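S.,

Sequence below, as promised.
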Amino acid sequence: LEGNAGGMDDQSGSGELGQPVWATAHRVTEFLYVGGSLHSGDADPGRVLTELRSQGWTHILDCRTETSDEAMVRRLAPDIEYHQAGTEDEAGGTAEGWFDSGVAFARDALDAPGNVLLAHCALGQARGPSMAYAVLLDKGYEPGEALLLITRARPEAKASYAEHALDWHLNRTGATQQERAEAFDSLRAARGHMRELQRRRY
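The prediction came back faster than expected:
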């Protein structure tokens, strides 16, 4: 497995990797960012794209349906590959083909060493983090640790559709009942750990 199956401690790798200044995005791993709209924050999208190109971004996976940045990215950052695998918020777990489309794009993008992907939505709370979670599962990360990597890097991320992503992944990989039970136990433990960290913060 490419993921870290270690314990659920309070450490986050995001600080040592560094974060963008202008973009509302957080670095989860060396190949994956998660965040909100390119139009959010204090900078115009051109400045955001310039900054993130300098940090090695090569691919954008947009999880929204309400709007598209394809033309803007093509104009301002033509070397970045853009793909929209969107779903309506509050329906992210049931949109047909959503995880299939997004993860297929991510898999092709990350086949090449050094490529870096952003999975984003409007606010970087539900759809983008849930798609990032599906990408990590596809890369072999353990279910609980994958969720914690995302929420440690981006504390506001709820990954509301992580359970749907895990179910999608287990169906696709033909998991046994025992494997399914263990995977969902791992995810539930991570959810509990997240709630405990939030309780300590507030």
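Helices lie at 14-17, 45-54, 70-76, 98-110, 127-138, 143-153, 162-173, 177-201.

Coffee later?
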